[in-house]
Write a structure and sequence with these properties.
The protein is of the alpha/beta class and about 250 residues long. Helices cover about 35% and strands about 20% of the residues.
Length: about 250
């Protein structure tokens, strides 16, 4: 199903997307999405691992449909990196040649990302870290799961170096949620940033994605409609019969 942005001067509608059948889909800022995640976990009992599993499974499907083998997943810590690590597991389960390059030593992973890494390690999926590891990797598709909607400021250090190297590769690039280096709310790119071929954003599109000129898809991570209702975010299930659906930016017909 295709989506088209609703261009208008009204703040709420300016953030909105709609389906071809006219169903409205609200885009959210990083702060709004942070509240959605908090309420989903603290008040509705969802776990980060549950949502991450949905994200990783959808991302793996997206990669298989939009990329070629072999696949290299760039992953950081936190939810975005954990989603990428989870996708690597799903790809490996389907005998897709996949490896992972972290933006830090595996000893620096914690929480849900650490859990996802330990599963990959037990599966003997290759996991390395640093720019040298990416330079040595054979990649037809690069999955960008370094930094999600929480970016504030420019990327620096190893994440920034990985982004610069990834953009120099002759590979298809798929970003999870938002391209690393892009500010999710505004679409600004204050430093090194990924220039993806496609983005799988999660739950609701982020407002900054209106600035992108690449293929966009929306992935369902099973957040109940009541979460959005409790926060006053207009919501009508955009997935209907599918767990992922296509989005179109405001500049497109």
């Amino acid at each position: 199903m295709q989506f088209v942005a609703i261009p208008t001067n009204d703040t709420m509608n300016a953030r909105a997307f709609r389906t071809e059948t006219g169903r409205s889909v609200t885009a959210v800022t990083a702060a709004e999405m942070r509240e959605v995640d908090r309420v989903a976990v603290e008040e509705f009992g969802l776990s980060l691992l549950q949502m991450m599993e949905n994200a990783g499974r959808d991302l793996a499907r997206h990669v298989r449909e939009h990329g070629t083998e072999p696949v290299v997943v760039l992953a950081g810590n936190g939810g975005n990196g954990g989603g990428g690590l989870c996708a690597a597991r799903h790809l490996a389960n389907r005998e897709v040649p996949v490896s992972v390059v972290l933006d830090r030593s595996s000893d620096g992973l914690d929480g849900a990302a650490r859990t996802q890494y330990e599963t990959l390690a037990a599966m003997d999926v290759p996991v390395d870290d640093g720019v040298g590891a990416l330079a040595d990797a054979e990649a037809e598709t690069v999955v960008d799961a370094l930094v999600g909607y929480g970016l504030d400021g420019s990327l620096c250090g190893t994440p920034g170096e990985l982004v610069t190297k990834a953009d120099a590769l002759n590979a298809t690039v798929v970003s999870l949620d938002v391209p690393s280096g892009m500010v999710a709310t505004t679409g600004e790119r204050p430093g090194p940033s990924i220039d993806p071929d496609s983005v799988l954003t999660l739950a609701l599109p982020k407002t900054g994605l209106l600035e992108l000129e690449c293929e966009l898809s929306l992935g369902d991570i099973a957040i109940p409609a009541e979460v959005y209702d409790s926060l006053g975010i207009p919501y009508s299930n955009p997935f209907e019969a599918a767990y992922r659906t296509a989005l179109t930016r405001a500049s497109e017909p």
